[in-house]
Write a structure and sequence with these properties.
The protein is an alpha/beta fold. It has 15 helices and 21 strands. It has helices at about 100-105, 110-130, 150-160, 190-210, 230-245, 255-265, 270-275, 305-310, 320-325, 330-335, 350-365, 375-390, 420-430, 455-470, 485; strands at about 15-25, 30-40, 45-50, 55-60, 65-70, 70-75, 100, 130-135, 165-170, 170, 175-180, 185-190, 215-220, 220, 245-250, 285, 315, 340-345, 405-410, 435-440, 445. The strands form five sheets. Strands 1, 2, 3, 4, 5, 19, 20 and 21 form an eight-stranded mixed sheet that branches. It has a four-stranded parallel sheet with strand order 6-8-9-13. The radius of gyration is 22 Å and the shape is globular. Bound molecules: zinc ion (ZN).
């Protein structure tokens, strides 16, 4: 193959070929057998079969899929702590809700350097999984309060350096849930503090948008809805409109958020957001589970109408939903209603392919039907759904004029088995580990599994050390302060050498 310059960019047109190309014609994806993609600079200039022009470089990926990169609207961007909840419940006894004793002295459990490392590490993992556009999400449980300008400035640097397209917004909130001394969930609000962190996030957004970077853009990312007061929701919506940037408002996942909003305001979360004028086509709503009018919500409500009319996008995160025993009801019903749906990875591994696989299967279980959901419906959500949510017709599709955000998925190795159709086989036998090469904005950011400037082995070792250090501090912010060994279970009895 062509030797790449250190910049990852090749001057002049670059022609890529593979056994299958996912191109785009007349508003939908098409599969081009033995297809060709040509890009020049940051743009795709040709997708088809016979390119008539001269090119500066040619790369044939052989038995592979050339695909538009994935758009991840809830992109895992820390050393995921949600995985600790997999077999350790209830959350409030496992360090996922602050006890009052900790809330009064909550502090940043990671140093600035550790916060910067985990973003850079997470961005590299997203690239490895074929994500070319990411809207980062991380936990606030180990934070003093909200996310900070300093760590997001470092994240912007990491995105530029690694070459990942991102929309960045430090998370903020005016409130917090906690466990009181009797083991009951309670709420604490500090609007002044929340508005200060909102002001910081807004200043960050204005600065980032002012950079006019082709890669790094801004979004607004208020935390879960139950941690936001009405004024914060209103100010966020106004700012989103003023700056014309995406707003991600977590609102349809947990019982806690649903019951808190209905008990306080007498409305469902979606009705409440609607009443505050906070829903429009810029808004992204993870996770679409607790919606009135579906089987998960035993309460009437206007949610379905609101979703249909608001133009907001549901951010469907199949893996984290399924692991927690819940799911959208249902992907196919929302899709048939014309509700916009994009995908998010949310939890480890940040593998969009695995998320699509889980999504197809659980959706069929939800519907009790083998044909309510097809492979291409999820592939559309992972590409076009995300791009449309960001109002970016230049993303999520490979056609002339689109951004050169291209991934290569290897279908040639023996563990894939026999291919029946590239996208259908992707949904059954592939994984994010099969993504070998990634081009973002016309730059080769991963070549043959290697990301220039990122040492995956050293990164993993450091991530483990940093994560272990955080886990050691769980007793500080777990109700009753039990030792780590009592907070987290083991699948089987652990026998040390002298047992
Ligand atoms: Zn979530």
């Amino acid at each position: 193959m062509t030797t790449l310059p250190p910049s990852g960019r090749i001057d002049g047109p670059v022609l890529l070929t593979a056994r299958w190309v996912v191109g785009h014609r007349d508003g939908r994806h098409v599969i081009l057998d033995d297809g060709v993609v040509v890009f020049e600079g940051d743009r795709v200039v040709f997708v088809g079969h016979d390119y008539p022009g001269a090119v500066a470089a040619r790369i044939d990926y052989g038995n592979a899929i050339l695909s538009p990169g994935f758009v991840d609207l809830d992109a895992l961007s820390d050393l995921d702590t949600t995985v600790l909840a997999f077999d350790n419940q209830p959350s409030w006894r496992k360090g996922r809700v602050w006890p009052r004793s900790y809330m009064e002295r909550a502090y940043e459990m990671y140093t600035q350097e550790e916060l910067a490392f985990q973003k850079r590490y997470a961005f590299a993992q997203l690239i490895r999984n074929g994500v070319t556009t990411a809207l980062p999400i991380a936990s606030l449980f180990y934070r003093a309060w909200g996310e900070t300008d300093a760590e997001f400035s470092a994240a912007a640097d990491a995105a530029h350096e690694l070459g990942l397209r991102v929309y960045l917004g430090p998370a903020y909130r005016t409130g917090n849930s906690y466990v009181d001394d009797d083991g009951r969930i309670a709420f604490f609000y500090d609007e002044e503090r929340g508005f200060r962190s909102f002001a910081d996030s807004l200043a960050f957004a204005e600065r980032i948008e002012g950079l006019a970077s082709p890669l790094v853009r801004a979004m607004l990312a208020p935390d879960r809805i139950e941690t936001c007061t009405p004024d914060l929701v209103r100010r966020t919506a106004d700012a989103g409109r003023d700056l014309d940037i995406p707003v991600r408002q977590h609102c349809c996942q947990s019982d806690l958020e649903f019951t808190r909003i209905t008990a306080t305001y007498g409305m469902t979360p979606l009705e409440w957001l609607d009443s505050l004028g906070a829903l429009d086509e810029r808004v992204l709503l993870p996770h679409g589970e607790l919606v009135a009018g579906t089987r998960h919500v035993d309460r009437p409500g206007r949610d379905l109408d609101i979703l249909k009319n608001a133009g907001a996008t549901l951010v469907h995160c199949p893996l984290v939903s399924a692991r927690h025993g819940g799911f959208m009801d249902s992907f196919s019903k929302f899709r048939a209603m014309g509700v916009r749906i994009g995908l998010g990875t949310d939890t480890w591994p940040p593998d969009v392919i695995q998320n699509m696989q889980v999504g197809v299967m659980i959706s069929r279980v939800m519907d009790g039907s083998i044909d309510s959901v097809r492979s291409e419906h999820y592939f559309d959500a992972a590409t076009l759904g995300g791009a449309d949510a960001l109002r970016r017709p230049d993303l999520g599709r490979l056609q002339a004029g689109a951004k050169a955000d291209i991934i290569v998925i290897d279908m040639g190795h023996d563990r894939i088995g026999h291919v029946i159709d590239p996208i259908q086989t992707l949904m059954m036998a592939s994984s994010g580990r099969d993504v070998t090469d990634v081009v973002i904005d016309g730059r080769f950011v991963m070549v043959d599994g290697q990301i220039p400037g990122f040492d995956a082995t050293a990164g993993q070792a450091r991530a483990q050390r940093q994560f272990d250090g955080l886990v050691a501090r769980y007793p500080e912010r777990t109700y009753g302060h039990p030792p780590v060994g009592e907070i987290f279970s083991s699948a089987y009895p652990r026998l040390g050498r002298n047992a």
